[in-house]
From TrEMBL:
It comes from Oryza brachyantha. The gene is LOC102712822. It comes from the Eukaryota. InterPro entries: LRR_dom_sf. This is RNI-like superfamily protein.
Amino acid sequence: MEKGKSVVAELATSLRDVEVTPRRKPAGLLPAASFYSRTTKGRPRKLVSLCLGILGQHLEDIITDISEFATFFPPHIKLAIVSIARRRRLLNDEVLISLADSSWEILDISGSDVSDVGLATVANISNNLCAIDISRCERITAAAVSEVICHCPSLEILRCGGCPRSESTARRSVNLLKPKLNTLEEDSWEELDTVEIGGGAESLRWLVWPKIDGNSKEIISMECPRITVNPQPSPFDIRGSKVPAEALASVPLDHSIIADIDPKTWAVAAAPQRPTIPTDPNAPPEMSIAEKFRLAYVEREARLAPKRAKRERQQRRRAEREYVMNDINAKSVALAAQVSKYLRKS
């Protein structure tokens, strides 16, 4: 016991003069401008993010029954599941409609299988949408964009393009974005209080369309001066408003939703690569695929030739037998031959 006390006393004495100072970052270094900066190695993930990660890893097993328990999830959890499903190539109309919530403000369905039906339904449910990404969506047309503009008056950010079908949809939607006055036939100004005088995307400020054609860009700049096309990150404000991160093409629209979730959640394991065998420089040149097919066909024909000849002989004998059985003259000749043979023997 006395020995243990002496050891502790010696350690305390040796550590008394040790000064521990906190580690400081070098001056002049700024944090990296990345939307993944929230998730650092020094900070543990939240419990809800870990649970979402486990849920996302097994999303294929429960995606068909997502509508049965989607009502038990809060809105932000539903949106996170949508983001994970999009990254795992599982997002379609059924999944999106099952998880849709009226409190959503952003919607990222880029590169998914969502069609006009799914987008129009969500636009009717989520009227508070401020940012939508429909880029690389092969099944969305200008009809769905019209529904979004009609039911989402707070829409400020629209992201489109990225594939031939989406580029065509964006070009057809340019006229829908332009402000216009509706034709009204009311008798007095008092009756116009409940009638929409204008139309178009009145709140739209940022249009992210990386491969916009010159004609569409000119139309937007001339008739929609409030809309900024493909904004770039800048420390200064553009037209009196700072560019939000959601309006930058390099930043996924739903980055803030899945910032704390492990990216391994939606990572798909790649197929293992076959080991490459080094070629021998002295080896003969490899045979072409066409030559391999030709040699394989010749070998098959040679292997099946005896079977085909046997089958042809059988078919010939069967045809002769059927001819003898069905033709009267042939029967007479055969019967006469048998009678003559019998008479010779007798």
